[in-house]
Amino acid sequence: MRIPPLKAIIAFESVARTKSVNRAADELGLTASAVSHQLSNLESIIGQALFQRSGRGLVLTPTGERYLADVTGSLADLSRATERASSRTDVEILRVHSSPSFGLMWLLPRLSSFQEANDDIQLNVACSYENVSFSNGFYDIDVRHGYGNWTNVEVKTVRGEFIAPLASPKYLAQHPVKTPEDLLSHRLIFSESPLVQWKQWFGRTGVSAAHKTFDFSFDRSYMSLETAALGLGIALESLMLASVKIREGLLVPVFDASFAVEVGAHHLVYPAQNADLPRVERFLAWIEREAAADLRG
User: Tell me, which GO biological process terms does this entry list (predicted)?
Assistant: First the structure.
């Protein structure tokens, strides 16, 4: 059997991932009819249907699922081979995608540490709120925030992350806090991001806060942490994300460690075929060392 045209395989992968001919067309810079033509051509060569239509769009057939699993690794290999051929032989490129708060507040301040330990690796970092696909081989690792239940990828959770109330020293000097119940009369900052929310945290301390309102509300951790550092209230946030501001004295935990709640909220996600890449192994080991250093203080 002859090998199908590469553009047909790329169109198939994009449609399979986006579950839409129109979205795949936008991604590939083609018309929807051109993408449909490539799919028809591929199915004609294979001799079997790769998709079936459902109420939610296109769904892979069992043949399509097997074919996607087979070609995804091949596309990634082609991408890496092209990258190696076009790059300096003495420098490897590590492409990392990250959730914005982790990238801005944890990763960025530590880039010099990574560079010092790995001066033969060029680190390219991109941040967005979407989980990336590894099928095109562009990204090596994705740092994701959530519950870590993604399938068909390797997931390594960053250990030692705790959620706790945080405030600026200036705020606490002006508005002393002695007990969790005291927080009910303070300016509280609400953030949608932490896996432990104020209601849950108060519940763990035995404080009823059903009617407590918030002075500020944000959908991103870096915004709530920055607001707390400005002395505008108390945020319930990740000590790991706040570690640089804590080290700089801009934020402090309001209570001792017994009031912090451990979570597994940030994860290093990568396809299985990337696990043995030296640049990936070194990045994972570096993250682990840095996270352990944070715990030691």
Answer: DNA-templated transcription
Q: Measured between alpha carbons, how far is 245 from 251 in angstroms, rounded to an integer? A: 6
CA 255 – CA 179 distance, rounded (Å): 8
What is the structure's pLDDT at 90?
A: 62
Residues 294 and 160: their CA atoms lie apart, in Å, by 9
Q: Cα–Cα distance between 239 and 164 in angstroms, integer?
A: 7
Q: What are the tens digits of pLDDT across the range 173-214?
A: 999 999 999 999 999 999 999 999 999 999 999 999 888 889
Provide the CATH topology of domain 161-263.
D-Maltodextrin-Binding Protein; domain 2 (3.40.190)
- The C-alpha angle 39, 41, 42, rounded to 5 degrees, equals 65
Hey, what CATH topology would domain 87-156+265-296 get? D-Maltodextrin-Binding Protein; domain 2 (3.40.190)
| Dist CA 213 CA 155 (whole Å) | 36
Nearest of 109, 141, 111, 124 to residue 266 by alpha carbon: 141
Cβ contact 24:35 at 8 Å: yes
Question: What fold, for 6-73?
Answer: Arc Repressor Mutant, subunit A (1.10.10)
For the sheet containing 141-145, what is the strand order?
121-127, 92-98, 141-145, 266-270, 154-157
For residue 268, what pLDDT is reported?
Answer: 97
Q: What is the pTM of this model?
A: 0.75
Q: How far apart are CA 260 and CA 254, in angstroms?
A: 10
Q: Is the model's pLDDT at 89 over the cut of 60?
A: no
CB 230 within 8 A of CB 269: no
Burial of 141 (0-12, 13-18, 19+ CB in 10 A): buried
